[in-house]
């Protein structure tokens, strides 16, 4: 059974529709990334899943039931978690555990497990105000997991971290996904490729993609020729109107040319190079990365 089933979800503010007829499902045990540029509607969808914001239309089901009755089964890490700075990390987890109705015996054991999991056992008695940004994010994950939720939702969990912090967080999420269903929003495509089973690509409130990463590559990847030559800037405008050319991105002496057909595109480009007597330094066929596909879709 799906953990979350979203059917024809809509959200409007006055006359402005910010989420338009979005449908998707998340199966038990999956890790799903919600991708989109700033303003795409990612946070709005998360707030509706959490029942913080009410949808204008559509339906959200949690394991087949109305999701507003299932809050106790969802853990949440906001993009910028805010804690009482005077509390210690352990005190915060104890407070959240008590709010969740966990008995004292099991709470002590759960706190120790989570502090060890997120690497904060040595800092558990320090005030949160002394924690670094990365430590606060890890504490935020611990508090989101304190009640053993069936679904963990995270909004841009690594966006403010340095490279080392991001790497540590990704390794932590790999462990968590073994036991918990995860939905997280991000604009870092590499993280989605590394961690997730499925991706949702959202742009201007519309769901463009809902598929596994492998299937997104199969269905949406386009061949790209990279050509480098001293006079490529003069040559590129002459190619733009041919129907075999999907798009051209030119920077400096290099051009990325997307074509609709590999064989026809290669032969045609080589013929054009020969006609123009272009002194080519590089002619390479590559396949689009997930980031390339994403950028093309939301452009």
The percent of residues in helical segments reads: 25-40%
Poorly predicted ranges? none
Classified in CATH, the superfamily of the largest domain is P-loop containing nucleotide triphosphate hydrolases
CATH class of the largest domain: Alpha Beta
Query: Could you say which overall geometry the principal axes of the C-alpha atoms support?
Result: elongated
Question: What's the helix-strand series?
Answer: EEEHEEEHHHEHEHEEHEHEEHEH
Average pLDDT, rounded to a whole number, is 90
The count of helical stretches stands at 10
Count of individual beta strands: 14
CATH architecture of the largest domain: 3-Layer(aba) Sandwich
Given the helix and strand composition, which structural class is it? Answer: alpha/beta
Description of the structure:
Belongs to the ABC transporter superfamily. Keywords: ATP-binding, Nucleotide-binding, Transport. This is ABC transporter ATP-binding protein. GO terms for molecular function: ATP binding; ATP hydrolysis activity. The structure is a single chain. With 299 residues, this protein is α/β, with parallel strands linked by helices. It has two domains: 2-218, 3-Layer(aba) Sandwich (Rossmann fold), CATH 3.40.50.300; 221-298, YebC, transcriptional regulation domain (Alpha-Beta Plaits, 2-Layer Sandwich), CATH 3.30.70.980. It has helices at 42-49, 89-99, 104-117, 133-145, 163-176, 189-195, 213-220, 232-235, 262-276, 290-298; strands spanning 2-13, 16-27, 31-35, 57-62, 65-66, 74-77, 151-155, 181-186, 198-203, 206-212, 223-228, 245-251, 254-259, 282-287. The strands form three sheets. It has a six-stranded mixed beta sheet, sandwiched between helices. It has a four-stranded antiparallel beta sheet with strand order 2-1-4-5, covered by helices on one side. Helix 5 links the parallel strand 7 (151-155) and strand 8. Helix 2 packs across helix 3 (104-117) and helix 3 (104-117) packs antiparallel against helix 4 (133-145). It is elongated, with a radius of gyration of 24 Å. The protein starts with a strand and ends with a helix.
